[in-house]
Amino acid sequence: MVLRFHAAFDLRRDVLPWLRPPEGNDVFEKISETLHIINVERSRTVLYTWKGIQGYTHIGLYDLEAKQNEVLYTFEKDLQIISCSINHERTLLAVSYFQSAKGEGVNEPLRPVSRCLTLLIEIHPFNNVKVLKAVDSCVRVQFLYPAEMVQFPQSRLLLISEDRYIEQFHISDVTEEGCGVLLQHCGQLPKDRVAEDFIWAQWDILGQRLFYIISKDSKPLLKCIQFYPDQNFKELLEVPLDLALADTGLRLVNFGVDTYQDRSPNVHVFASKEGGLCLCYSGPSDAAEVKYSVAFLHRGCSKTFAVAITGPLSGHNRDVLFANLDYYVVVYLPGHFLHLLNTQHPDLMCYHLFLTGEAARLDVLQHSPCTQALLEGALLDCCSGIMFTVNINQSSVLKLLWDSELDCQKLAALHCALLHFENPMHWETQIIQWICDCASTCATFNPIQEFLVASLYRRTIPEASNLSKLLPYTSVPCWNMAIPGIMCTTDIIALPIVKRKGLGGFWENLHSGLEYVKYAEPCFHFKTLRRDWWKLISELNTEDKRTTVYHKNILDNAKTVLSHLCTCNSEHRIAPLFQEEDYQQKELIGLIMVRLKDHLTRHLPYLRKNIIDKIALDYVAKLLDLIGLIMETVWRKHDLVSRVFRLDGKGSEDEFSMFHIMTRVLEAANGLCAPLPPGFQTLHTVLGVRCLPLHTLLHYIDNGVLQLTEACVTRLLKDLDDTKNNEKLKFSIVTRLPEEFCQKIYQVWDHPVSSSFIARSYVRLLLVKLAKRPLEQRSVSDRRLSVCLEFLPLNYLVTVLSEVEERALNPFEEDNVDMKFVEETALKQTTILLGL
Question: pLDDT band at residue 549, thresholds of 50, 70 and 90?
Fold first, then answer.
């Protein structure tokens, strides 16, 4: 299963053995039948009720941290508990119940006395009982809980009436010696009207927020009230909704465990720590398809999904279940489909995971007619009395990555693994293994690019969360592929209005996300650097470029990155990288640093320069480190640790696999315009020389797949002897080198080809010097030839160049070459060309 379930609380496991009476199994069976959960509080306590031996109604508490049970209160009669809540200090208990005679149903005609009674009870010790409400409509109660490390100055209780209003009671208590905790001002408790005339309301247990919907101008309007320890409560958000919510009944969500009301309309609001806010809605389903909508309020868009259904919808699984996993909204229809919708990056369909069949099967919820999403990452099966903690099954996601045939599922699983797995370093090796074995099966995206960009995003964002909108999270620019069995329509919706700023936490993150949507701050993309990088490379050896401040700044930034890499985990590296300078890659590294700093300074002007410098340095260094991680993982996989690479001999199968992966990494980096670690291209070409036939090697070189670096060519000329095949290889390589490159390389190859190039270069240099001399100084008619040869053109050339040498201050300033060497080389080349 893609989702992992853990039973954090089970009535039969954690409570029922504690309630076992000595009277016998008949009494125990009666207790078991009446035992059910009433509420789950923010303090991780579970409230439950049961009927005892004499028919008395008991209320108990289970502490999930201490794993202990406690009886809170006992009513000496048979009651139908509607709602129950206990305050943070566990001194006050609020209870709402029906006053119906034994055997009478809830839907009996109204009687003269009020049917619903709401009580406030002092329970430590048992003292006063105060009636808060005595009405005919159903009432629910919920104590407010303080945020962590903050205490409310008094207990505050929400009272939610089916007459469509919510009140807040302020309850002060005092500790008196001998009497325990007593209520103050018990006669008349202060209260506030929080909300009224709503058609739907939901309590956010963790965030202590109240979401509710009212009808304004015949259109639904979502509002949110935040409760504070010192500020009481404030309405902070409102947003119009494009939903057809018929005002046929009141729907209350998460105000305790409710097994008595239906689930229509099926509306849920989920808030995430990162500032995400999603409203989920599903209407009636038919036999052909199921429709549901998710409004990503923090992104100003809404997606409506129509899912084709094969097979009948049974009575107990006709409703779509929504649950919150922070980064994902779970949408589940038992027996049909399981969808994980990405709340952080909802734009592209390929980052939502759509499962059907066995992949969508959740055994624990398969036959549960009443499941409730109470907390983030928690589901309550009201029928069995089990509360599950739910999270993503990482092993199942990786299995889906290996087994799936659809690119959309592969990309969604890969994205989930890279961005949302706990302990990402633990899983990266397996993901790299999948990339090595299955990268060629991905037709619509490059998995290496996605690995680099998404992993880099994951490693950078926790250090500075305000970067989440400015750095790329994916390498996929768009996704237009159809997903089998699903139709999706996207609508632009109104952005929420946040009425107060500077609140911190969720509200600050939400406001930051809304500002990003409003002003569309662009992400930093590597591809925008390509034209500037090519320009820098084309000017690599010009004097003008070397002296510019801009170029000096680029080189200084590159030097900073490379020196930082050399000091980080260098002793653990086994692949021969970071051991040389690659001038082209050095230019790109420095260029990325400069551009990234400019980008962050433009959009984060409040950050100090040293902080932006550190972010940019870490970002580029981690990018190079990720490429190094791929190399290290594959290197170890093929056991190339102890291999000493030589250019002679044929490469092994493991070396060819390494070459293949390096080619894919090079392709991915070039596609992103991302830099490669120094030494990467040298190692790649060395492997190519060992593993490829000559014509294929030269084809790779001519098409830019292999780059001839100075270190590689130098090693090639020095390490290989001058056999016929090796001479052919060397000559083929040398003829593909640019002239300025040859001036450095030919000095290490003692061969006629090298001598010819050196001689030609020397002659060209001397002739250039001769061209700069005055005309009257160029006559050589009166001079004798140094040698007597029958080849007159060579005689004249030698005479001219000898004169230039005589006039030079240092005749041997150019690589210790003189005219005797040029003469001998020319004669030898002529002899070879004439076949003499």
Answer: confident
Q: What letter does residue 571 receive in the DSSP assignment?
A: G
Q: Which of 103, 95, 61 is nearest to 78 (CA)?
A: 103
- Is residue 460 within 8 Å of 622, Cβ to Cβ? yes
Say which amino acid occupies 47: L
Rounded Cα distance, 674 and 623, in Å: 8
C-alpha dihedral sign at 446, 395, 319, 241: negative
Q: pLDDT-derived band of residue 488, with 50, 70 and 90 as boundaries?
A: very high
Assign 682 a pLDDT band (cuts: 50, 70, 90): confident
| Cα distance between residue 563 and residue 567, in whole Å | 7
Lowest mean pLDDT segment, chosen from 232-246, 280-294, 499-513, 793-807? 793-807
Asked whether the beta carbons of 111 and 98 are under 8 A apart, the reply is no
User: Phi and psi dihedrals of 130, rounded to 5?
Assistant: -115, 135
Using omega within 30 degrees of 0 as the cis cutoff, is the peptide bond preceding 265 cis?
yes
Q: Which residue has the tokens 């009230």?
A: 225
Least confident range of 310-324, 369-383, 391-405, 747-761: 747-761
For the chain, give the percent of residues with pLDDT over 90. Answer: 33
Helix (H) or strand (E) holding 17: helix 16-19
CB contact burial 252-273 (16+ within 10 A = b; e otherwise): bbbbbbbeeeebebbbbbbbbe
Side-chain-side CA neighbours of 694 within 13 Å: the count stands at 9
Q: Whole-angstrom Cα distance, residue 605 to residue 541?
A: 36
Q: Domain coordinates of the chain in residue numbers?
A: 526-707, 758-834
- What's the confidence (pLDDT) of residue 652? 86
Sheet holding 301-308, edge to edge: 266-271, 277-282, 289-296, 301-308, 486-492
Q: What is the DSSP letter of 352?
A: S
pLDDT at 104: 45
Distance CA 546, CA 539 (A): 9
Cα(337)–Cα(369) distance, rounded to whole angstroms? Answer: 16
pLDDT-based confidence at residue 114 (cuts at 50, 70, 90): confident
Indicate if the pLDDT at residue 552 is higher than 70.
Answer: yes
- Could you give phi then psi for residue 535, rounded to 5 degrees? -65, -40
- pLDDT higher than 70, residue 309: yes
What pLDDT was estimated at residue 377?
Answer: 87
Q: Which amino acid, one-letter code, is at 753?
A: V
| Rounded Cα–Cα distance for residues 823 and 832 (Å) | 14
Beta bridge partners, 238, equal: 223, 497
**Model pLDDT, residue 54:** 81
Tokens in use for 255?
Answer: 């105000």
Long-range contacts of 495-499 (CB under 8 A, 24+ apart): 495/239, 495/297, 495/300, 496/222, 496/237, 496/238, 496/239, 496/277, 496/297, 496/298, 497/237, 497/238, 497/239, 498/236, 498/237, 499/234, 499/235, 499/236, 499/237, 499/238
CA torsion 741-746-747-749 (nearest 10°) is 140
d(CA 207, CA 146): 10
Range 697-723 average pLDDT: 83
